Structures are given as structure tokens and as C-alpha cells.
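so my prof wants the structure for this chain in the C-alpha cells format not the other one, which i didnt know existed until like an hour ago. anyway here's the sequence
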Amino acid sequence: MRRLVILSTSWSASVLAVATVISACSGGGHDASSAGAIKADTPSRPVEQIKEVTVPRGTALAFTLDDSVGSATSRVDERVRAHLTRPVVLGGASVIPVGSELSGAVTAAVPSHRVKGRAQLGITFNSLRDGRETYAIVTPAIVRTAAGQMKKDTMKVAIPAAAGAVLGGVLGGGKGAVIGGAVGGGAGAGYVMSQRGADIVLRAGTPLTVKLSEPVTVRVRDGQASEPSN
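here's what i got, hopefully its the right format
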């Protein structure tokens, strides 16, 4: 009798365990269905559509320098930075925005010299960053050369020479005029040889424009689209 009771109790426990498992499975399936329904009801999430656009050769880039450079103060390969002041527009749409960063280097930095040799400064840009992407670009060097001093130097020599000739003529006649002119001219030439010409300086904030020597392909965010739900 006692054995029968034990067997009956074991059987009842087994039945109860099986029922619990079945109930749990049924509940899990209901939860999964609910989760699927919730997912289906969740609105689609917008995603950016990106397309590639080729900016053609010859496109002008208008920009302002962020760094100052000078023929007497800069060195070749020194970094130069700038930013666009106008967007690049193709087909009525902006493909490179205002504020995009340009990066390049000094290509020439020749200070002025006494007697001869004019100052020269050159810079070029080879990188463009639109805030998210960085692109390699090819542009011609922007070169500035100091104006010639020949006319000014001639006047600096001629004026002292003329003054010397006048003074020599007053003191010693024709021969004195020749001597006075030579002395005055020598003084003027000595002054010119002691002077340097002007150097070239492009300060931060200087507006410049350069054109692309080669086309560049950029990635453009083209509005929003809906991500399909599963």
C-alpha cells in the first residue's frame, strides 16, 4: 500500500512538471508573437542616402587663409591651412560646403636680396576635408613675386647725381659738374646697394581662389530614405 502511494505521488509530480513545461512553451510563443507585433508596429528608421559626385577639373575653390605665410618667414614644405568661403555647387546642389578645410604646403619662400633678387612666395593645396570625408586634390601653386625695384633704384641714383652735378658746376664749372655728378651718383648707388627690396606676406584672412587641376570625386549625403522593415 505504501509503495502504491509513493508511485502515485511520483506520477502526479511528473504530470505536473510536464504541464508546467507545456504552459511555459505556450507563454514563450505568445511573447515572441507579441515581440514580432511590436517590431512590426515600430516606425521605419530614416537612413542617409550617399551618392558619389565628380567635381570637374577647372572648378574654382574660393577660400581664406587660416595661416600667415611670408617669403622671409616661411620655409618650403611648411604646412598651410585654409577654409572655403563659398560652397562648390553642381546642378543647383551644394556638393562641397562652406567651411570645408583645405590643407597644403609652402612650395617657395625666397626673401628679397640686396642689389638683385626679388622676393617670391608659393603655396599649394593637396587635401580637402568636408567635415566627414578627406579627399586628395590637385591644384596649381599660387605664386607671388615682389615688384621690380629698377625704376625706384634708378631714381635713387639719379637724384643724388643731379644734385652733385649742380653743386659741382657752381663750384668748379664744367669739370666740377662732371666730378660732382660722379660723386653724387656713387653716393646714391651705395645707398641702393644697402637696401633690400620688399618681401611677400600673405596674412591669415587673405582671400584667394584656385582651380582644380584634376577632377575629384566626393561623397554627398542626398536626403533621407526609409529603411525597410523585416
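also thought this was worth mentioning. Confidence is low (pLDDT under 50) at residues 3-7, 189-194, 224-230.
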